[in-house]
Amino acid sequence: xxxxxxxxxxxxxxxxxxxxHGVSERTIARDLVLMREQxxxxxxDRGRGGGVRLDxxxxxxxxxxxxxxxVDLLISVEVSEQMNSPMFLAGLGSVRRxxxxxxxxxxxxxxxxxxxxxxxxxxxxxxxxxxxTAPPKRVVQALHQAFIDQExxxxxxxxxxxxxxxxxxxxxxxxxxxxVWYVIAFDHLRDAARTFRCDRILTAxxxxxxFRLSPKEAxxxxxxxxxxxx
Length: 230
Fold this sequence. Notes:
Blueprint: H1 2-9, H2 14-21, H3 25-37, E1 42-45, E2 51-54, H4 67-82, H5 92-101, H6 105-116, E3 118-120, H7 126-131, H8 137-149, E4 151-158, E5 164-177, E6 180-187, E7 192-197, E8 201-210, H9 220-223, E9 228-229
Parallel strand pairs: 3-5, 7-9
Antiparallel strand pairs: 1-2, 4-5, 4-8, 5-6, 6-7
Helix pairs in contact: 2-3, 4-5
């Protein structure tokens, strides 16, 4: 985060950086030394009004992403491509190929499995779009992890009528009917496949219990629009 800030904001004093990050000036100075040792071109302007900065051209053409970040970015690219938006997407194919090339064969297989579990449907109706809200961040994080790790999720869910229920679900697939995300899941409460609107999930907690992925055919009724929990 410090490197990103130095690149975006230009000159920053060590004192200001320490205050912004809630650490001592000595800690910032030590971090700057480590960054220089890692090859980052950090310049220092001495005197009144001086500070430190990172060359704005550094890092162009390179990204240091964690595996999870790279997976998220690749899946976002895939979703954008499948939506066939004509604006600003001409280079997505190249971005996707470069990301895929950075993965080991094992990780590439894992990513392909994840991509196959994300489905793109028709755009949501005007009525649905007017009712959608952003899910709580903690819900998104728990759902994200449960989906990737194939872990049963304990949720509190409110349907369109305002009725709240406690459920344990297996998030097998995600469905985007722009801009609304749905979870195609096996619902332990109903002992059947159900579809849940992500923005109607009030709370979500990981259970630590994993499930075996089922084929799309097992959820065909939900995918066809039946048993939709709105």
